[in-house]
Specification:
This protein is of the alpha+beta class and 143 residues long. It is 22% helix and 42% strand. It contains 2 helices and 10 strands. A hairpin with a 3-residue loop joins strand 7 and strand 8. Helix 1 packs antiparallel against helix 2 (32-42). The mean pLDDT is 86.
């Protein structure tokens, strides 16, 4: 069953502010640099989390232009109660522009890939059994 994400007010404000500033800069300063910045700001659309699907044997994360399948045989899945982003350090990530996506260093978890639309939760932590690679997405097993 598919569950769509709703974006938090903070994500909406950060995204709208960035786009307004960037479009304003492009309008008032017509140069190749403004258009280069505009195109670079649109690249994160690829990773925009849209929702997830729960199946008996897998969880599928849907982003705008791609999807990632987590086979439950390969991943340990657990629900997180607290906000995993608190105290985290962005390594190569978006801190609210089009969601919280990318690589974060999180206390007690280490390096994680986040695909979060609403930083208030709920969250699922998916850990690859052999490589210990972690993903954190918005979602609930009880959904």
């Amino acid at each position: 069953m598919y569950y769509g994400y709703s974006y938090s007010p903070m994500v909406k404000v950060i995204t709208a502010s960035c786009l307004v500033l960037l479009l304003g800069a492009c309008y008032f300063s017509v140069s190749w640099i403004s258009y280069l910045l505009l195109s670079l700001m649109l690249v994160p659309l690829i990773y925009l989390p849209r929702g997830y699907e729960l199946h008996e044997d897998r969880i599928v994360l849907h982003c705008l232009l791609w999807r990632k399948t987590f086979l439950l045989a390969d991943y340990e899945v657990r629900a997180l109660e607290q906000q995993p982003i608190l105290g985290g350090i962005r390594i190569f990530a978006s801190g609210g522009y089009l969601g919280f996506t990318g690589f974060f260093w999180l206390p007690k978890r280490g390096l994680c890939s986040l695909f979060v639309a609403d930083q208030r939760g709920p969250f699922l932590e998916l850990t690859y059994r052999t490589k210990r690679r972690r993903y954190i997405i918005n979602g609930s097993l009880a959904a």
